[in-house]
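Work package 3, deliverable 3.1, input record:
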Amino acid sequence: MEKERHILAVYPHPDDETFGKAGLIAMQTRLGTPVTLICSTLGQMGRNMGKPSFATRESLPKIREKELRDACNVLGIRDLRLFGLRDKTVEFEDPEVVADRIGEVIAETNPSLVITYYPKLGVHPDHDAMSEATVRAMRRIPKEQRPVLWGSAVTRDAREVLGAPHIDLDVREVLDTKIEAMRAHRSQSEAMLKRMEEGAGTDEAVRREIEERLGREVYWIYDFGD
Amino acid sequence: MEPICREAVHEALQGFVNQEVYLHLETTNGAYAALREEAPMAVSAYIRNGLVKFNRGSIAGDGPYRVGLKMDNGWIYAQGLTDWEVDGEGRLLLVGHDPDGRLAVALELSHQPFEM
């Protein structure tokens, strides 16, 4: 994988930068690539409260902000921009205003690569709102100067709609870092990691399957159609 | 949070009766419910900082519990409540957690607006 000049990651929730993307980020920061992360909400409406639960609806945003900062440290993300929006409401904000804010960060950091969810295929409405705003911001940039945009598609029919992923990345060399970042998002990952460890502890096949699943990340290059 | 004690929650509810208070009420099965085939579709609703006034507040059931708040012109209702606390700011937090510790329903009352 080639080193990027600068990566801008645009996501709505703490942990979006980690689940399915931490490998790419860790591999790039290991190469010395600066990474800027826009996180537009604090995941205030998250449903996972830890297992057993240790967060409340009211303490969750502070806990998740701390978890996000810890994950950024693990992944080598040194530039975190919190947009201060509220979980589940991003799609009801003025998309032009959200695009303006993303555009300002692009202008300031001059990334060679922008990563976000793939437009319309993010499943969570906040994912789709942020990817749409990102595309809106990037369309304003002349084609020759526009960074490349990689999207993560979450819907079950992603491969039918988009074909095979354009980037199929083996991230096993940073698997430990990726799992450490997942662990940093304790309120969101604890139940899942517990299930995973219980399975892997007793079954070699399960362990291999987990390694295969987490050790691979796929992205689609977004075509702006111009 | 602790498992709900009916008497204690009943007592706490009385501290919010007959005055304007801020309400947070929500229920959710998670944004990924349909993707993970846990439910036919993702369903959720919430109201944050609804300013309400109720004249009677009660808790019912043997666990999970239900809470009903009777207003002059309507009702506020939640079902499936399992845990509770009065937090450091005097807010009454009632939630229903599923066996994985995930929030399924929440009803919260505060004298001050909840943070946005």
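The CA atoms of residues 11 and 58 of chain B lie 9 Å apart.
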